Amino acid sequence: MYPTDLVMPMKAELTDKGFSDLATPAQVEDALKQSGTTLLVINSVCGCAAGAARPGVVYSLTGEKKPDHLTTVFAGYDKEAVDAARKHLAPFPPSSPCVALFKDGELVHMLERHHIEGNPAGAIAANLQAAYDEYC
User: Fold this and answer.
1) For every residue of 22-40, which 3-state class applies, written as one string?
2) 28: nearest Cα among 72, 66, 58, 68
3) 130 in Cβ contact with 111 (< 8 Å)
4) How far is Cα 85 from Cα 95, in angstroms, rounded to an integer?
5) Active site residue 48
6) pLDDT digits (tens, 9 = 90+) for 67-77
7) Choice among 20, 34, 45, 46 that is catalytic
8) Do the Cβ atoms of 75 and 62 come closer than 8 Å?
9) Exposure b/e, 18-48, CB count within 10 A at least 16 = b
10) Residue 46 catalytic?
11) What are the E-state strand segments in the chain?
12) Are 107 and 76 in contact (CB under 8 A)?
């Protein structure tokens, strides 16, 4: 488990932009069964989360279409919440960071770590905006 002092600023990069911080399995279950579209970010301390995932996700929300609900859990910190979230990401293996889009509780789009790592934030944003255009 990562120390709180390390994690909180990284969480704030999303929560300050309107993301709900899901810290318990019950919060994850409630969030992912909402009607409409829900974006779930499994946040992480790694460099690709800092350099591409978080900035890319935030930038993706500047377009016309965007998800109805914005949510996040933090790998290595909110262990039980992350475990609950990952149950909804099958058949994809555990990956952090990763970004998932749900529509009416069903997974419709997924960006795994290998899609994020080595790509600029703009590419992450463009990928997500294409998914929003299709599903939101």
Assistant:
1) CCCHHHHHHHHCCCCEEEE
2) 72
3) no
4) 11
5) yes
6) 999 999 999 99
7) 46
8) no
9) ebbbbbebebbeebbeeeebbbbbbbbbbeb
10) yes
11) 20-21, 37-43, 69-74, 98-103, 106-111
12) no
- Overall residue count recorded for the chain in this entry: 136
Segment 12-48, tens digit of pLDDT: 999 999 999 999 999 999 999 999 999 999 999 999 9
Give the rounded distance of the alpha carbon of 57 from its chain centre: 8
Beta-carbon contacts of 19 under 8 Å, excluding residues fewer than 6 positions away, are 41, 70, 71, 72
Structure tokens at 107: 């997974």
**Which residue out of 48, 81, 101, 131 is catalytically annotated?**
48
Cα torsion 102, 3, 46, 53 to 10°: value is: 30
How far, in Å, CA of 32 to CA of 101, rounded? 10
**Contacts of 83 by beta carbon, 8 Å cutoff, 6+ apart:** 25
Q: Any idea what the Cα angle at residue 77 is, between residues 76 and 78, rounded to 5°? A: 110
> How far is residue 87's CA from residue 10's CA, in Å, rounded to a whole number?
24
What is d(CA 74, CA 81) in angstroms, rounded to the nearest whole number? 8
This model's pTM is above 0.90: yes
